[in-house]
Amino acid sequence: xxxxxxxxxxxxxxxxxxxxxxxxxxxxxxxxxxxxPIRVYNAPKDAPPPMMTASDEPAxxxxxxxxxxxxxKQPPRQIIFAAFRISSQxxxxxxxxxxxxxxxxxxxxxxxxxxxxxxxxxxxxxxLGSRVKEIDLPTGKAQLVELxxxxxxxxxxxxxxxxxxxxxxxxxxxxxxxxxxxxxxT
Length: 186
Description:
Blueprint (H helix, E strand, L loop, with lengths): L2 H30 L39 E3 L5 E8 L3 E10 L5 H12 L10 H4 E6 L2 E9 L13 E11 L2 E11 L1
Antiparallel strand pairs: 1-2, 2-3, 3-7, 4-5, 5-6, 6-7
């Protein structure tokens, strides 16, 4: 194309866009000229949510257990609700009771933590089927995890601190109770 033909078209396009922009500014400015009177409203406050009383909470009986003879009660610590020391000739075993809320990732997180305590590699979600068994208890279904430290190689200088662990996760109302027994080397 000839440059003489293109230049007038561009000038025409620029003028058209400039006119449209000017018209938009005028319309916006005209809208700004109106004054809206300030209005005051009296609105009632929202009613406070009803207070939850003990009778409104789900009726969940507290978890109970009988401590076998010879077990020494230990002081609770951090998140441990109750702890017991069991002594035998070969190992010292501790049984702990912990209660936590319920979350979908709670099972994998705890299995991974316990595996780390035993020197085992962490499981993936897909591995839980081989690590966790579902069991029936009088209070409902629970999950059982049994883990064992790897046997130290012959002549190894040190053995893992924890040798074996058994844990039961019991959903109970809005909480999950963990009963865990860990046998430690003497």
